[in-house]
Design goal:
This protein folds into 2 domains: 159 residues, NAD(P)-binding Rossmann-like Domain (Rossmann fold, 3-Layer(aba) Sandwich), CATH 3.40.50; 163 residues, 2-Layer Sandwich (Dihydrodipicolinate Reductase, domain 2). The protein is 25% helix and 21% strand. The protein is built from 9 helices and 14 strands. A 7-stranded parallel sheet has the order 3-2-1-4-5-7-6, sandwiched between helices. A 7-stranded mixed sheet has the order 9-10-8-11-14-13-12. Strand 1, helix 1 and strand 2 form a beta-alpha-beta unit. Helix 1 crosses helix 9 and helix 5 runs parallel beside helix 7. The protein is globular. The model has no long low-confidence stretch (mean pLDDT 95).
Length: 341
């Protein structure tokens, strides 16, 4: 198959730059346009010294000749992708991979409820797919609009979905404690965390209502009729990248830690990017930084039937740009690891 002609819109943010860096290593990727609102005419190398090859200069979206593009990556603030996709969906050859929240929520009113904005392309929501790569391999080719999940939901769903599906764990009173590097807040993190002493402190936020809960609620409802109750506690830590989610959950009486471990091994047997560690193996983000891998470990506690599931990813790669490329690979029928290993 010939190379895919790609436009990256939102090229100078953390996720956009990570995406471009990864695409430079992809044998089937040909970046035709790199677009942003500012820095028009500058080289992307100015923003990321890791990028060594010659690439198009930063340009405006209006400069794109849509007939010359096969795939559009959209790495924009919430609300931006829907406007562009609405205008360009008429070009039947185009595919879209959206890294914002614009097409993550399937119920048409959920977006406004959670993001406090009117959705401008409601008619296209049903034509998109919410795509954690490991869960949609057989369906993703049917869709032109691929919605990349949030970073926290990726780290949480990869360990939890298989166990809840098999009814191995109790669905009530789950506690999810997630810690993320500050790059998850984007390049304006210093303004967002003003007076938080971000370089040397840990702080919690969004405990009662975090936007990523909307994704978890939606995806949990798809796999069980039992109401799942959980508390989600996100934290920002003094690290640039990486997420570690600690999930406190109770095993159903007739099962053991070994049953949970065995189910995850079985579920991810043919998945290249999810590594199931030995029982009680302590993990952090160190092994997954700068990779598209997710490491998962199930740990026993002193309390009977209570376990802690650890899940580590790089928020900028498996939680964003890497998974976007994995989704591209699946959508075009490539090996899902192409350009990522």
């Amino acid at each position: 198959m010939k190379k895919i002609n790609i436009a990256v819109i939102g090229a100078t943010g953390y996720v956009g730059l990570e995406l471009i860096h990864l695409l430079t290593k992809h044998p089937k990727a040909n970046m035709k346009y790199l677009c942003a609102q500012k820095s028009i005419g500058k080289s992307v190398k100015y923003f990321d010294k890791r990028i060594k090859i010659k690439l198009p200069k930063i340009s405006k979206v209006e400069n794109i000749l849509w007939k010359n593009v096969d795939l559009i990556y959209l790495s924009l603030p919430n609300g931006g992708a829907q406007k562009i996709i609405k205008k360009t969906i008429k070009y039947k050859h185009l595919k879209f991979i959206d890294l914002s929240a614009d097409f993550r929520l399937e119920k048409k009113d959920d977006y406004k409820n959670w993001y406090k904005k009117k959705h401008l392309a409601k008619d296209l929501i049903s034509k998109s797919i919410y795509s954690i790569s490991e869960f949609v391999k057989n369906d993703i080719k049917k869709f032109r609009i691929i919605s990349n999940p949030g970073c926290y939901p990726t780290s949480i769903q990869l360990p939890l979905i298989p166990l809840i599906k098999k009814k191995l764990v109790k669905s009530q009173n789950i506690t999810i404690d997630s810690k993320s590097g500050f790059s998850g807040a984007g390049k304006n993190f210093k303004q967002k965390f003003k007076n938080k002493n971000i370089d040397s402190s840990v702080f919690a936020y969004g405990i009662k209502k975090h936007r990523h809960m909307s994704e978890l609620d939606q995806e949990f409802k798809k796999i069980t009729d039992t109401k799942i109750t959980y508390t989600f506690n996100p934290h920002v830590i003094p690290s640039f990248r990486g997420i570690l989610s600690c999930i406190y959950i109770e095993i159903k009486n007739k099962y053991t830690v070994k049953h949970l471990h065995s189910e995850l091994l079985k579920f991810y047997k043919r998945n290249k990017f999810v590594k199931i560690m030995k029982i009680n193996h302590p993990i952090g983000t160190g092994n997954v930084i700068n990779t598209n891998y997710c490491e998962i470990s199930i740990c026993e506690t002193r309390v009977k039937n209570k376990v802690v599931i650890l899940s580590a990813i790089d928020n900028l790669i498996k939680g964003a740009s890497g998974q976007a490329i994995q989704n591209m690979n699946l959508s075009y029928g490539f090996n899902e690891a192409l350009g990522l290993i």
